[in-house]
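Narrative of activities, Objective 1.

The group set out to show that a structural description can be obtained from nothing but a protein's sequence at a throughput compatible with the screening campaign. Below is one input-output pair from the validation batch, recorded exactly as produced.
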Amino acid sequence: MRRTVFYISDGTGITAETIGHSVLTQFEGVDFDTYRIPFVDSEDKASQAAVRIKTAYATSGVRPIVVNTIMDRALGDIVATGGALMLDVFAPFLAPLEDELGTARSPRVGKAHGLTNFAEYEARINATNYALTHDDGIDVIYDDAEVILVGVSRVGKTPTCLYMALHYGVKAANYPLTEEDLANLELPKRLVPHRNKLYGLSIDAQRLAQVREARRPGSRYAKLEQCRRELDQADKLFRREGIPVQSTTHTSIEEIASKILAQLGIEKHMF
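Output recorded for this entry:
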């Protein structure tokens, strides 16, 4: 089965896509062709979106699905003329909240991702800069780090650090375990003072070999045997030093980051 899905918003469409993707992954055996239509903030753009939906409907013969975060109901109604199944993300929450708070909502386009708090924005930028300057052991002064991810090369440390920085303002560094570190089965001296900040990442050896092969084709670095050896030694080191660890093989960056923050007791909210 194949269905067409549109994420439509009067802003970036990030919220619609994030929530929609989470919901769609619950349905196995269905292939989804997804399209994001952002900044639908006028009648003309809403009409264009409706035409695009109608075209998809006529082409496939199956009703498209729309995950909608348009705040202006009139624009949402125009989009609905396209004939899709309309899933309004905010609708179930707004009426109960208006009753509870005793006040009507005041819709503002793009408010969810607007630059409304400069302190939070600066925290994200500072954390991102920190992640970049402390990537792969470039800067090994970790006094200001809140998290230090440890693992073999290409296990997913960098994207996870950047995600935590961008979405949570967390200062995350990462340290790549070298063959010398693994041979000694000892925590590098520069990491010892920061033991309570350490978190290990692992991955399936086959998957690691694929990632490394794409980066350095035909190299010893990418051989399956080498990957297995490094991961086995890293696992022994994590267990010996009591470092929490999780696999990144079948886990999204969002879930990895959330588990890390929860396990290390870092309570920060997504911006």
